[in-house]
Design brief:
Number of helices: 15
Low-confidence stretches: none
Structural class: alpha/beta
Radius of gyration: 21 Å
Number of strands: 12
Order of helices and strands: EHEEHHEHHEHHEHEHHHHEHHEEEEH
Shape: globular
Strand order of the largest sheet: 3-2-1-4-5-6
Strand content: 15-25%
Largest sheet: 6 strands, mixed
Length: 359
């Protein structure tokens, strides 16, 4: 069996990054014995510490808690040092894996791609941000025989991005997308009940690690807007976040001020959402925060769905995407499943890494 070395630099050791390290340690032997892939983690970095070993960091008998203690003792880091050390490694078949949400780290992608270093990222900043940078990254990957994979930017481990890519490459055209893209918001609207007010549902979403550390990012629709922009771009519509019509369900004043102020004031919305819940329940409908792309126009809004619609029975923090294409018409392609959580997100990142060499 022909053997192949894949050199990985992981940026970010939080919930997703840590889970990814555990998954790579668990699968390392199988990948070598059954697929001939020598998966080497040659660097683990973040903005605080940097650990580099061109021969590979030992993942035998791996324990994430022990590793985090060791990592804290590693040399101090900076974005500039990460940039320089990754380029200095200059190893063949290298991939930089970004499991942060950092704007500064995303700024490094272009230099890495131009040096033939592939990028795999859970970080949505680059793919949803400045349109011209997005186009440059796609071009740099193509011209330098590298890959820029970001499947987990939308739907965690669900195969949404690869599916759209396959449809477009095969000559199909995406004409409409309807999607529930926030596992956090879906969890919240599935959790609200007579006994669980809106504010408590938001708190539970944070405690269960479905929401961002600052839930206002989810409630403001920022995460959904970013995901919709990414889907639109991958479908051939060059939109920016400013192009998305925003119909939000929480007043702007709740996004102003400190996070402490937000938690203090949030219960003031409970009566309003309880009245909405009763009305929706009486009509036997369910609330969903929906992202829509149609005729090149994008929007997000809280909508009601009756029994029989694919969005009606969406449970827990699951996500769903309906792709209406020229071929999948009038019945759309539906991709549905668990759309949040460290385990499935890390697994999606792992799959993106392995995709680089078609493993």
């Amino acid at each position: 069996m022909k053997q192949h070395i894949l050199n990985v630099v992981l940026c970010g050791t939080g919930t997703v990054g840590g889970t990814l390290l555990e998954q790579m340690a668990q699968q390392k032997r199988m990948l070598f014995e059954e697929r001939g892939l020598d998966l080497r983690v040659v660097g683990v970095v973040d903005i605080f510490n940097i650990l580099i070993n061109p021969e590979g960091i030992c993942l035998d008998n791996f324990n994430m808690n022990d590793f985090r203690e060791k990592f804290k003792q590693a040399p101090k880091s900076s974005v500039e040092l990460i940039h320089d050390e990754v380029l200095r490694l200059s190893l063949p078949d290298m991939v930089f894996v970004d499991c942060t949400a950092s704007y500064e780290i995303a700024d490094l992608y272009e230099d890495f791609l131009n040096k033939g270093i592939s990028i795999v990222c859970a970080n949505k900043v680059a793919a949803s941000g400045d349109l011209q940078r997005y186009l440059r990254l796609k071009k740099a990957a193509l011209e330098n025989d590298a890959k820029y994979n970001f499947e987990t930017n939308v739907g965690a481990g669900l195969p949404i991005m690869h599916t759209i890519d396959d449809l477009v490459k095969s000559g199909d055209k995406i004409v409409k997308i309807e999607a529930v893209l926030s596992g956090t918001l879906n969890f919240i609207f599935n959790t609200i009940s007579e006994d669980t007010p809106f504010s408590e549902a938001v708190r539970l979403a944070k405690e269960n690690r479905f929401s961002e550390p600052d839930p206002r990012i989810d409630l403001a629709g920022i995460d959904v807007i970013r995901k919709l922009v990414i889907l639109a771009r991958e479908s051939g519509y060059m939109l920016s976040q400013e192009d998305v019509e925003k119909n939000l369900f929480v007043p702007q004043e709740y996004f102003d001020g400190s996070l402490d102020d937000f938690w203090k004031n949030l219960p003031k919305l409970d009566a309003q959402f309880e009245a909405m819940r009763k009305d929706v329940a009486a009509a036997n409908e369910h609330l969903r925060f929906v992202a829509t792309l149609e005729n090149g126009k994008a929007s997000v809004a809280l909508r009601r769905f009756a029994q029989g619609h694919p969005f009606y029975n969406l449970e827990g923090s699951n996500s769903i995407v309906m792709l209406h294409t020229e071929r999948y018409n009038p019945h759309p392609m539906i991709i549905q499943g668990y759309g949040a959580g460290a385990g499935v997100t890390a697994a999606g990142v792992f799959a993106d890494i392995l995709d680089i060499f078609n493993v």
